[in-house]
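Troubleshooting entry. Yesterday's outputs looked truncated, so today I'm pasting the complete records for two proteins to confirm everything comes through intact. If either block looks cut off, that's the bug. Protein one:
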Amino acid sequence: DGIRDSVASRGLGDVYKRQLTDTLSLLFYRINSFITNYFWTLILICGASLAATLTTSRVQPYGLLLMVLAIDFGLVVGLLLLGWRTLERKRPTIPYLSRLIMPVMTAFVTGHHHAALAAMTRYGTKELQVSESLNSMAFPFFALFGRAGSTMVASATFTVIILSYSNISLAAVDVLWIIGSASIAAFALGAAPGGGVTAALAILAMSYRDSLKESYLVVEPILPLLIALGAAADVLINGALVLAIDTRHRLLVDR
């Protein structure tokens, strides 16, 4: 009887722990939902601040860099839409990528992955219809390690910086080195949730040549824009990947 009572008490304790965890999870989710309901005010304030720092005189000298980034973004969006068409043939009820607009806008105007994570957590279950278990694990994981967009922006920016030096020639090996080094550095960018592109540029500059250790400061006037673009690309890619994983999981379950 004593053993039975002990086992029963342990089982009851596990139930209470599970209920407490579920209750706290629901409480924090509702708090997060309440805060993100008013994110439009944050978007307006941060958007106005970003626009104020990026005057025409600041942006104009970086026309080539912005054109390269625009082409890169176009390629990323095109590939995502192409992949989405493929998934729609297998699961017609898959949500549209346009439902990522609020988290992407939050990431762009704030440049901060934690703010974007709050939006993704709320919209992941409600708008994107991602399962709760995947929503609670995948988005925080990608917020730490999913920095493909920041890596892309940093790689393109550093390549344009090197090309701006007339005494430095850029070979194919150098381009591969930049891409590889930026990809490796991406795993450390979780420590910089609000300045991933800046951290990646600093790592690339210090690792490339001694004479270019501070070369990334050349783009200091438009760093807020680069950070915003990197964060927005990260959220767009990560959101699409989570949706694809969830779709794949549902297809396997339906079989």
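Protein two, checking that the full record survives here as well:
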Amino acid sequence: MKNLTLIIHSNIQQDMADQLRTLKQVSGFTFSQVEGHGVQVESDPFLSVRDTVVGYTPTLRLDILLAVSDAAPVLDTAR
């Protein structure tokens, strides 16, 4: 088994959950709130005015426990 961990912007949580629910390889997944701190570049398309003001980007950690053979197709779908 492998644990696939992705960090995604919170704006795409629902779309990602909908996509993952369609995959037979995914029996379940977990979202956890995290805060992305670091140098923020104004050209970042995910950076909102709110992110600039508060100083961090609202992100989610996504964990999916998969069989080794299922990791590549699930990652391809997530991309």
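Both blocks look complete. Sanity check on protein two: The CA atoms of residues 20 and 26 lie 7 Å apart.
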